[in-house]
Design brief:
mainly alpha; about 200 residues; Serine Threonine Protein Phosphatase 5, Tetratricopeptide repeat; about 70% helix; two-stranded antiparallel ribbon
Length: about 200
């Protein structure tokens, strides 16, 4: 079972990964976007860390709902609404349970990813964060580690794609050859989930 502490560890691991990789995310975004993805995500997760430390929520769903709200209010560009929607919808799907199973988290995360697809009007292959998130959802049925590997592979697979959604789509064929920053940060989120599972001695979904 996954308790509130597990979800707090997941968000802490995500914040640490964003901090560590912020420059890389910005460099990726400089090639096909506005060169602010790393700094925007860093600002958002710094705020997330502060609010979770100040008043930690009581349930897994409440953790993700609060984080989603915080990201919407602090992250600039499209990333705030997209990441906020992902985590808020996942949290809402978890409900008020004090503990959830890996299977319940996988189902809820799938609902969150579907909400992102609806909000952004994107699908797999469009060179967006969905290219990491969609394979991760499928692999969550196997394990958290499988989801991490699938998300990382999905992010790498955006390199040869032409962007069809978002700021990068304005570049047309010039977007080919660059890794999508949103898919890359999404892979960090999923990798942090696997890290939280490893530190708690779990890992099977």
């Amino acid at each position: 079972m996954l308790d509130t502490d597990f979800f707090l560890r997941w968000m802490a691991a995500t914040a640490a990964a964003v901090q560590r990789e912020a420059s890389r995310l910005t460099d990726l975004d400089a090639a096909i976007g506005d060169a602010d993805h790393g700094s925007n995500m860093q600002r958002g997760f710094t705020a997330v860390t502060a609010v979770l430390e100040k008043d930690p929520p009581a349930t897994p769903g409440a953790v993700l709902t609060l984080v989603g709200r915080q990201l919407i209010s602090t992250v600039g560009g499209a990333s705030g609404p997209l990441y906020g929607t992902l985590l808020r919808r996942t949290g809402k799907a978890l409900g008020e349970r004090p503990e959830v199973t890996p299977g319940q988290l996988a189902e809820a995360f799938g609902a969150g990813v579907a909400a992102v697809a609806q909000l952004g009007g994107a699908q797999g292959g469009d060179k967006t964060m969905l290219d990491a998130l969609l394979p991760a959802v499928e692999a969550l049925e196997v394990s958290f580690a499988a989801a991490r590997d699938a998300a990382q592979a999905g992010a790498l697979a955006t390199v040869p794609l032409q962007a069809r959604k978002g700021r990068a789509s304005y570049l047309g064929a010039r977007s080919i050859g660059h890794q999508d920053p949103g898919a890359t940060s999404s892979a960090l989120l999923v990798a942090a989930l696997a890290e939280a599972a490893e530190t708690s001695g779990g890992g099977d979904a």
